[in-house]
Every structure is written in C-alpha cells, then in structure tokens.
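Shipment paperwork, digital attachment
Item: protein structure file
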Amino acid sequence: MADDFELDTDDLQRRMDGAISSLRTEFASLRTGRASASMLEPVQVEAYGSMTPINQVGTVNVPEPRMVTINVWDKSMVGKVEKAIRESGLGINPQLNGTIIMLPIPELNEERRTQLTKVAGQYAEHARVAIRNLRRDGMDQIKKAKADGLSEDDQKFWEQEVQELTDRYIKQIDQQLETKQAEIMQV
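Attachment content:
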C-alpha cells in the first residue's frame, strides 16, 4: 500500500529556500552604518491612492558610502516620500534639495550595533522556526504513510532525509547570522 511512498523533498527544499530568501531580505533591511539602496526596500509611500515602494516613485542612488539619494520623479510626491522615511523607524533624517531627498547615514554607536545584532538574531530565529515547522510537516507526512503501511526501514530512511535537509538549512541560517553580526559590529 504505502510501499510506493516517496516524500516530496523537492517541495520541502523549495519551501526551506523560501525561508532563507526571506531571511536575506530581512538582513538586507538592517543598516550596518554603510549606505545601501536595499535599506529603503521596506519603506512604503502613499502614492496615487495605494502604498508603493520608494523605488517606484523615484530613483534611489548611493553616491557615497554614507549617503543615499532619492530623485523623486513627481514633485507632488516629495513631501510624502520624506514623511514615509521619517516614520519608517530607520533613524534617518531626510534633507530636501528640490526633488532630490538626501539621506545622510550616521555612524552607528556601539549600543546601536549591539541592538542591531540582537535584531539580526531574532530574524535568524524566526527563520529557524520556519525551517523546523517545515521539518515537522515532512515528519507528519512520514507518520501518516507509516499508518498507511510504510515499512519501518523506509520510515527511518525518510526521517533521516528530512533531518539532514533541516540540519543543512539551519547551518546556512547560522552562517548567515554570523556573517551579518560581524558586518554590523565592524567599525
């Protein structure tokens, strides 16, 4: 009956890749004291009746290591973009120059760096939880197949496959966290 059971490890892997991808996006939004266009990705602007990413209302540039500029295409949007940046919680004070908004990136102090490493740790823990939930889903599928007549040897084989996949992804998360924390603490 369940002798032909085969766990869809490709699906599990794809979903785990999604968790890693989400973690990378969250890490990119953490500012490390260097200017980066990606730090503005989570910021949304009220534009033309809907919430819109900043990069869809203007050109985001990084002309120097401690400066991000946004060249807003529509003059009427400059105030809204400035307001969205102020309210984003990034801790950046925008400066206006016509349709160009300049964002000087302040040097991070030791306390702020420590806070950011903790935030990075929280992001990593959320990713680990997502991976563990996917592991549980895989194990539940195996248990269901066992109830349907899967042999004990096959059960052990599939459980080991799922566990190896989980360990590999958890290791990736830990490596990315270590890299990001080192980047944040770098002066």
